[in-house]
Amino acid sequence: MAKYSLLNRGQMRLMFEEFKHWAAEWLAKGYRIDTPIGSFAPKLRMKGEFTDSAKVGHDDVELDGVDYNPGKIWYEAIGEWMHDGFHKVDRPDASKLLADKERLELLMRDTLSRHGGALTANTFSIVSGLTYYSARKLLDEWTQGEAPKLQKTRFGQSYIYTEI
Q1: What angle do CA 56, 62, 66 make, to 5 degrees?
Q2: What φ, ψ does residue 92 adopt, rounded to 5°?
Q3: Whole-prediction pTM value?
C-alpha cells in the first residue's frame, strides 16, 4: 500500500481511523456523506410494523447497515488501468511451490543469511512467491518436530523466525 503513496502505512491507517470516527458520527445522525471516493448513507429499518407515522419514535428505528455508492470516480480510475482489458495477476500455484521443499529450505537459509539471521513470514512470502498464509504455515512447520530448523519468537504483533 505505502509503496505507491506519499503517505506511509501508519499515516494511511490514521487517516482511515479519523474518517471512520467522523463518518460514524454523521451516519448515526442520519446524514449522507459525499466524499471523493464515493458516497455513504445509513440504511435504516423499522423495529416493528407501524401504520401511523406519527407514532414512530427514535427508538423504533435501527441501523441496518451502510450503503456505499462508488460513483463515477472509481469507474474512471479503474478504466485508466484497464485500457487493454482485465488482467488477473498470475500467482504461482502454492501446492507446486510447496512440493519443492529442498528449494524452499535453501531459499529460507539464503534469506536468513541476507537478513541478519532473522526472517518474518511476510519476508519469506515475498522471496518465495508463496502467499502469506502458506509461508507462515511452512515456517511454523519448520519450528516443530524432533529436529526443528527454526525458532519462532513473538516480536510485537508478529513473529520472527531464527535459525537454531
Answers
A1: 130
A2: -65, 155
A3: 0.48
